[in-house]
Design a protein that fits this description.
The chain has about 700 residues and is an alpha+beta fold. It contains 16 helices and 45 strands.
């Protein structure tokens, strides 16, 4: 392709009055003054041999004018390039002619710029692949070159997209390997190929695909479909065991074993474990199963004494001595512990399987843990073996076999062997889920697959994780929904879109809330006022709280009115009931009975949880049951349900524990409390601390405070 000089644009010369001299260039310019293009062209052609630069320039000017029969942008472009080339070696005499007619190099470059623009406009009007190909081939690296490529490629892509076959997408990629649409074509190629080869939907079709295309972005999807089709969500463990034996290389072997285990052990006890062990001697995790399952039933709670930490069990017995500077909760049977500025791991038996060695240590996740030393991070297994060396400045947990990692500023992805699977190129790299990861480049977000293929271009301000291959995305400050298979499902016309749990999208447009389904159809019209609380957009048991003209009510998933719009506030729906407010008073409505007449007695009410609701009258809190009977009287300044129907009660700035029958479990005399492991409560006062187990309803440990 031809190289073109670029200099800032100036206007073409003004043909002002001048004194002529003898010579063909003079005659040519005289002819131009009176728009005699025929003679001007003739004189420039005759003077070309002696004055090639000025003659080429004159001819380029004539060819560039569309008011004469010689108009031809290709000829004009050729001549202006010749003029610029000849000028660099022009004799002094010829340069004097340029000066005489006030033709500067900037004038020549301005003409060149105009010629290119005219040629591009011509190709644009033609709007054909051949037309843009001619421009690309003839006009080289001009300022319109990239525009021509994009126009040409877009036209070509529309053709292959209408065909929508792997063959057509493959041909596009082969013909246009540098196209801006290459990765879009590649993504569609992979999807089309997968759909074509697995169209039968049989285990054999999916297995053949996994064997033939191990690097396909749909490789995991094929494995997943093979697993689903071959097992058909069976309730017989033998079906899953047969799958394991028939497809030993499946990515879902672990899932299959998990299903065998779950279906073979309906009641979790030692006898069931022994039966499972005898029935499946090929179970690959036998030793771990027996050991870990014994320990997993053991709940350990952090315990502090004299500034050092250990663990007690659910009975309050000290299991791991308080010798550590800090401890973290157990995860996958291991807990991070710290000593002298270093971190390691202990088991529930107190064994330091990995002594404090690292400056930083994360919880185990899928049997691997990220550790760090001197600001470099790597990965170890449960035995402390270094799987990935300490070389990365940032490193995430593994998700679907890949971890985001960076050695400098940009993130890529590595596998469990430390191999670089996706090259560093992202400012932010998210976890993989269902084969996809959301990443950021140059402040914009996009979506990639596990092969690094760009499924959504990096042009979005925000992207939510895919659900059923649908994503809520934000572009130019507006939200829309795109499908990985069919493109835009909901146009970018909304100020807010939120995916709900029932495959509807809560959308806000022009200050109104409505719901659109996964096909892009309006399922619930835009009648409602958007709320500031996210729960207002979420369905519970098929119902959602909405605001109509300033009043709240409840509708179902097809927009039918369940509770009329006559309330000033409605809490979340729970156990088929909702707390509602009129004015300053609260009561409850049973959704199953639709509208139930109520008397508004409460100043505040919260949703039911496990048969009980916390309510307030005159700044005092109590608890009612589902019949509306008061089970805890209005005598507390605060009430909070912790777990297993154990309430923390506050009165006169002291805390205690009570049950739904108003039995005092721990007297209201402690100064503060902390919830541990969701089911244990540590209460403290000046000279005492006490641990309460909400599952066993026991004080498991009580000792003097230091």
């Amino acid at each position: 392709m031809k190289k073109i000089l670029y200099i800032p644009i100036l206007m073409f010369w003004i043909l002002s009055s001048f004194s002529t001299q003898a010579g063909n260039p003079d005659k040519a310019f005289e002819s131009l003054k009176i728009f005699d293009y025929f003679n001007a062209k003739k004189y420039f052609e005759k003077s070309f041999k002696k004055f090639p630069a000025i003659s080429s320039y004159g001819l380029a000017y004539i060819y560039s004018k569309n008011d004469n029969p010689f108009y031809n942008t290709d000829s004009a472009f050729r001549k202006i390039n010749e003029a610029l080339s000849f000028l660099t070696v022009a004799a002094t005499k010829e340069k004097a002619i340029f000066e005489k007619y006030k033709v500067a190099i900037s004038d020549m470059q301005t003409l060149q710029f105009k010629i290119i623009n005219d040629a591009f406009l011509h190709a644009e009007k033609q709007s054909t692949i051949s037309g843009f190909n001619h421009f690309i081939d003839y006009y080289g690296d001009s300022h319109k070159y990239k525009d021509a490529l994009r126009f040409r490629d877009s036209l070509a892509f529309e053709i292959v997209r209408s065909d929508n076959t792997s063959e057509s997408y493959g041909a596009f990629m082969e013909q246009y390997p540098e196209s801006h649409l290459y990765y879009t074509a590649r993504s569609r190629f992979e999807r089309a190929l997968y759909n074509e080869l697995t169209a039968e939907g049989t285990p054999d079709a999916y297995e053949k695909f996994t064997i033939a295309y191990p690097r396909s972005p749909h490789f995991r999807e094929a494995h997943e479909q093979l697993f689903k089709v071959a097992t058909k969500d069976a309730s017989d463990p033998k079906v899953y065991h047969d799958f394991i034996k028939k497809y030993p290389s499946s990515l879902f072997i672990e899932d299959a074993w998990q299903r065998v285990f779950e279906l073979s052990i309906p009641v979790f006890n030692e006898q069931s474990l022994q039966n499972f062990h005898l029935a499946y001697p090929d179970y690959p995790y036998q030793d771990k199963l027996m050991t870990e399952f014994t320990l997993i039933k053991m709940v350990l709670v952090p315990y502090e004494k004299s500034g050092k930490y250990g663990f007690i069990n659910s009975e309050g017995t000290l299991v791991i001595d308080p010798v550590y500077d800090f401890v973290e909760p157990f995860a996958e049977g291991m807990a991070v512990v710290g000593k002298d500025g270093k971190s390691g791991y202990v088991t529930k038996t107190g064994d330091e399987v990995i002594p404090p060695f690292y400056q930083e240590a994360e919880n185990f996740h899928n049997n691997l843990a990220v550790v760090g030393d001197q600001n470099k991070f790597g990965v170890i297994d449960r035995n402390g073996k270094m799987i990935i060396p300490l070389k990365y400045t940032e490193l995430s947990d593994f998700s679907e076999g890949l971890a985001a990692a960076t050695e400098n500023d940009l993130f890529g992805y590595i596998d469990r062997d430390g191999m670089q699977i996706i090259n560093p190129q992202f400012d932010i790299a998210g976890d993989f889920a269902d084969g996809f990861a959301i990443c950021q480049k140059d402040e914009n977000f996009g979506l990639i697959d596990q092969a690094g293929n760009e499924l959504l271009p990096f042009i979005y301000q925000d992207i939510t994780p895919p659900a059923n291959r649908l994503l809520v995305v934000k572009k130019d400050d507006s939200y829309g929904v795109v499908s990985l298979d069919s493109g835009i499902v909901i146009p970018f016309e909304f100020s807010m879109i939120k995916k709900t749990s029932i495959n509807l999208f809560a959308c806000v447009k022009n200050g109104k809330l409505g719901f659109i389904n996964a096909s892009g159809e309006i399922q619930i019209p835009f009648y409602y006022l958007p709320g500031s609380k996210s729960e207002l957009y979420e369905f519970t048991d098929g119902f959602v709280v909405v605001n109509f003209n300033g009043k709240y009510g409840v509708i179902d998933s097809i927009g039918r009115k369940i509770i009329p719009f006559r309330f000033d506030e409605i809490t979340e729906i729970s156990s088929g009931k909702a707390a509602v407010r009129k004015g300053s008073k609260w009561a409850f409505i049973d959704l199953h009975d639709r509208i139930i007449p109520v008397k508004f007695n409460y100043n505040k009410a919260f949703a039911f949880h496990k048969g009980f609701a916390i309510v307030e009258i005159k700044s005092k809190w109590g608890v009612i049951d589902e019949k509306g009977d008061l089970v805890i009287p209005f005598q507390y300044d605060e009430l909070k349900l912790i777990a297993n129907n154990v309430f923390v009660a506050k009165r006169d700035n002291f805390y205690g524990l009570i049950d739904p029958n108003h039995n005092v479990l721990v007297p209201v005399e402690y100064e503060k409390y902390t919830v541990q492991e969701n089911e244990f409560i540590l209460l403290l006062k000046e000279k005492e601390r006490l641990w309460y187990n909400t599952r066993s309803f026991d004080v498991i440990r009580k000792e003097s405070a230091e």
